[in-house]
Design goal:
Oligomer: single chain
Mean pLDDT: 86
Radius of gyration: 23 Å
CATH superfamily of the largest domain: Glutaredoxin
Number of domains: 2
Protein name: SCO family protein
Distance between the termini: 68 Å
Strand order of the largest sheet: 4-3-7-6-5-8-9
Number of strands: 9
Largest sheet: 7 strands, mixed
CATH topology of the largest domain: Glutaredoxin
Order of helices and strands: HEEEEEHEHEHEEH
InterPro entries: SCO1/SenC (IPR003782), Thioredoxin-like_sf (IPR036249)
Low-confidence stretches: 2-33
CATH architecture of the largest domain: 3-Layer(aba) Sandwich
Family: Belongs to the SCO1/2 family.
Helix content: 25-40%
Length: 229
């Protein structure tokens, strides 16, 4: 074998090795992005400090755990939604407004990731409440939904009475980090938090809606919640 042939074989072997290495690294990265839940069973949350309560489904204490109360809202299609819309569903909720120039676009982008992750899973829904319901009418929500790729009946953008929405945010979902119990509906509600709700309307997690790692954790936690019996 002459020197030219040896050089060719060595070069070919190098490129083959490099290609295999790249493929293996890519596979490893793909596996690493599929985050696992931190725990085998998710805790319950009963009050604004979000202190976790570790209870079994058979525990008598679950009877008294905080639940999301009844509500009536209107979505981007003009349909009336109530708590019964989410009966036997797991859902993820947040609070936003369509004219928000700050955190809301990123939150909406990350909600889209959640929509994509569970697009074909009828057991998972998304619920985004407008905190400026007097401005975010049904036509405005419809336009926003179309612009952002919202899938109707999977992801509900809702408006309604300002007092009802603010009470839900502060006293039902405990959405504000500063607990919010001293605030009134006149004080603006603005938060990046996403909240995970189980099929019995119990709070099971709170996540930073601006943080990609938190979103991946939320996806993993939803899958853990789906395994509950």
């Amino acid at each position: 074998m002459n020197l030219r042939m040896k050089w060719y074989n060595n070069k070919a072997g190098f490129y083959l090795f490099a290609l295999l290495t790249t493929v293996l690294m890519a596979c490893g990265e793909k596996r690493n992005t599929e985050k696992e839940s931190r725990v085998a069973v998710l805790p319950y949350y009963d009050e604004p400090s979000f202190t976790p309560l570790w209870l079994s489904k058979q525990s008598d204490s679950i009877t008294g755990i905080h639940r999301i109360p009844n509500f009536t809202l209107i979505n981007q299609m003009g349909d009336t939604l109530t708590e019964k819309t989410f009966e036997n569903k797991i859902y993820i909720t947040d609070f936003f407004f369509t004219s928000c120039p700050g955190i809301c676009p990123k939150m909406t982008q990350n909600m889209t990731l959640l929509q994509d992750a569970f697009l074909n899973d009828a057991d998972i829904l998304l619920l985004s409440h407008s905190v400026t319901p007097e401005l975010d009418s049904v036509p405005i929500l419809r336009h926003y939904a179309d612009a952002k790729g919202v899938v109707d009946n999977k992801w509900h953008l809702v408006t309604g009475k300002r007092k009802d929405i603010y009470n839900l945010g502060r006293f039902a979902y405990f959405i504000e980090e500063d607990l919010g119990f001293q605030k009134t509906e006149d004080e603006f509600l603005h938060t990046e938090n996403f909240v995970l709700i189980d099929k019995n309307r119990h709070i099971r997690g709170i996540y930073n809606g601006l943080n990609k790692t938190a979103i991946n954790q939320l996806i993993a936690d939803v899958k853990t919640l789906q395994k509950e019996r």
